[in-house]
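Researcher: Please generate the 3D structure of the following complex. Treat every line as part of one assembly.
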Amino acid sequence: MTLSFDHNRPIYIQVMEHVYGQVCRGELNPGDKLPSVREMAVSAGVNPNTISRTYMEMEREKVVESKRGQGTFVTNNQSVIDELKVSAAKKETERFVGALSQYGYTEKEMELLLSDYLSKRGEGNDRSTNQS
Amino acid sequence: MTLSFDHNRPIYIQVMEHVYGQVCRGELNPGDKLPSVREMAVSAGVNPNTISRTYMEMEREKVVESKRGQGTFVTNNQSVIDELKVSAAKKETERFVGALSQYGYTEKEMELLLSDYLSKRGEGNDRSTNQS
Amino acid sequence: MTLSFDHNRPIYIQVMEHVYGQVCRGELNPGDKLPSVREMAVSAGVNPNTISRTYMEMEREKVVESKRGQGTFVTNNQSVIDELKVSAAKKETERFVGALSQYGYTEKEMELLLSDYLSKRGEGNDRSTNQS
Amino acid sequence: MTLSFDHNRPIYIQVMEHVYGQVCRGELNPGDKLPSVREMAVSAGVNPNTISRTYMEMEREKVVESKRGQGTFVTNNQSVIDELKVSAAKKETERFVGALSQYGYTEKEMELLLSDYLSKRGEGNDRSTNQS
DNA sequence: GTGGTCTAGACCACA
DNA sequence: GTGGTCTAGACCACC
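Model: Done. Output below.
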């Protein structure tokens, strides 16, 4: 696959977001085994140390669990996953509103910006809603 | 004044965003003189070199013009300012939609998230729309 | 007139180059009186101190002479003016060749670059050879 | 190595030009790793911050790409490099012609100045075409 | 006074 | 190891 990275942001975070996306979208289910650090490193085209850090971080956030000698698994605790989705949404919404109000946009304008963007996006490509 | 900074992001960027906000909201008009590097450094509570970098970046983006021995001024080119506002909105909207669609949210849900957040924000504090 | 300045280069030097151009092109002849510092400052739209420095610099290079209470005059020494023209040419040629050879251009290519540029320039505007 | 600098121009620019020369002359190829900031600082005999600024500017101009924790690399985009060479030539030619026409030289004279200079240069030292 | 450059040295996150 | 940011303090040219 070899993800394409923005070299201005930490790669380990971008990999993390990628996995979180798979988990939240249901492509990885509770209890599923993640690829090994080495496999993931190869498929993403990055240094194993970087993936290692990704996994550590995800484990710290209780989204995955590593079992000695067996591998790393998506948590069985669905509430953690839900929480992940909810808090991401909150964070992004806060950021969006905060940034735009700093630039002088009104609340009405923000909603317009969003709906305009979504409708324009819908026109050109119908099936790309979940493209990474 | 002494702005409060998020220690996870470069200060010079945060100062830049602060100034861009003032320009886009019309608190600083085309041709206006910015505070000198040293003044701004004092009022923001940071090193002059940091502000110097802020000003350099803003000049690179043509939002501001430095005149040797005179000071730093907001561009007279209104279209640059308009573009600033528009491109910021586009960037933020893209980010918002990109992040949420990665987490599996539908377009309807995104609009709901936004309107819910805005209405909740309206309840608690009416006067905070423009707080920095 | 109000010359347009590149704010990345010293204004006093740009004014100097402008006057040197007039002298070398024969628009100002040996013995001619230059405008007063104040007049020049107004017509160029800059600070009188800046023009003052321009004049000092030109006097240092013996291209003009200031006579107490009478004003500033182009030198009567034609050889200084000739030398001005010659040394400017030498300096510019050196710079041109030095820069281009650093970028890997051969001597042949340099001559081609020049003749191409000149012929293209000739097409569009015939009378602008001496525009400032 | 310890480059020798013209003290009237910013060092970080001179280093930049030096690297651009290497890239345009093919001494540094697309994808090649540049010396680290610290190494280059030592070899050029300047402060690391100065080289850091050089690298930042080059990255801004897309000639170079910094990868966190890995180093700084020449862009793989050959067209950027070609453009670099072409635009440098254009800029220098414009400057040359602009300056000389301001001093009253005709187009014929400009070409003569150049060819004379090149032939004289050829006599004295044959091997200095690419000296840095 | 203004901005621009440079040094010295520190700390940090990333790979 | 790498680059990125920040501070402190200096010096300079310019207006």
